[in-house]
Amino acid sequence: MTLAEISNVIEERKDQYLETLFTMLRQKSISAQNEGIEECAKLLENIMKSIGINTMILETNGHPVVYGEIIKDPEAFTLLIYGHYDVQPPEPIDEWLSPPFKPTVRDGKIYCRGAGDNKGQMMAQLLAIKTYKDVFGELPINIKFVIEGEEESGSENLASFVEKNKQLLKADLVYTSDGPMHDSGCPFVLLGVRGMLYVELSAKGADWDNHSGNKGNIAPNPAWKLIDLLRTMRDENGRVLIEGFYDHIKKPTDSEKQLLRELPFDRKKIAENIGLKELDMDGETYYHKLTMEPTFNIAGFSSGYAGEGAKTIIPSAAKVKIDTRLVVDQDPDDIYQKILAHVKKVAPDIEVKKLGAMKPSRTPADLEVVGVIKEAVQESYQKDPILQPSLGGSLPDYVWTQILNVPSVVVPYANSDEANHSPNENIGIENFLDGIKCTCHVVHKLGEFAK
């Protein structure tokens, strides 16, 4: 048997594989609402066992991890595949063109919550193992699966799970399929992610809202307190003014800079995707800002009256939510302490609350195994993949590179318009089937590499 036979088997089993995916998609698993989590973990365990994967459900301090393995030889190369079975809440329901938990095919795409993020990509990985085993008889390497149930809620307990189970999870490489492919249709090989710190700043005024005329110039306005504070935290050019914010940033290597210069860049198309009339920057600047620079973003500001018409009040309270995307080697705990120190110095009566954090991660581009993955992806898609040093967004990739201490790559299978987290989330049927094939190629190529 050869890899060419893989495509034939996938095509023959297309309907069977789609129905297996549909079964998973029909099962709700909303981590934020704790709805259907245990049922989905059990369903996933049964599917994995039916494939011949030794599987067990492992408890954490939150939602359980579904762990599976096929060990060819304890000394053989080991690939750990990471994914998640939990999904985002489906709201707003009325914006879905079909029920969010009823997989519906339209124009070659499967519409359902979790179709792209991450059940469709997770099931492609699992069904690839079944396909490869059936075609070749056995796997050429060891495979381990860690499929968690809290990714959509910040993976709060994944780090402690990995720390506790280092020996069980011992591997040579971690492989993740999550997120969309490049909007050009080319496959991605992503070598890291930005981290994140999410904080909330709260300001208090009087004990209740006051009339803006009768108490104007008398009652303090907490919205202005926050605005005045924010002006001390970032200048008009976007540079963050918090002392030490830019400490510990690891500069990109020459090879990473070269990768950024080689990435495809369509200024007009990117502007359209953002919703801008134009984008005033070149490709290298765009990708550097997206992958190598931290952000300081106001995600939301709430205070007073924002309904229809007028209501003349001095609000009694105000809140601003800020998310910062962090780059290697910034530490979210360190940045949080620096924000606390800044607020204490400038506006000590404003309360600061941490709402979430995740460390950044990056795998060196010049590792030999990265070249192996790139070659496998190229052979599968018959297209040169786009090698990017970091994703602009955040995934819990650091648990692999900093706790398990192994390289990690992300190869998304979903279409660029998957609408993950939004109404009408989807995955293209061909994307799903191509993901099965790509995983088979990755496993096969790693087998050749490990000989």
TrEMBL record:
Pfam families: M20_dimer, Peptidase_M20. InterPro entries: Cyt/Met_Dipeptidase (IPR051458), Peptidase_M20 (IPR002933), Peptidase_M20_dimer (IPR011650). Keywords: Hydrolase, Metal-binding, Protease. Residues 192-349 form the Peptidase M20 dimerisation domain. Signal peptide: none annotated. PANTHER family: BETA-ALA-HIS DIPEPTIDASE, DI- AND TRIPEPTIDASE DUG2-RELATED. This is M20/M25/M40 family metallo-hydrolase.
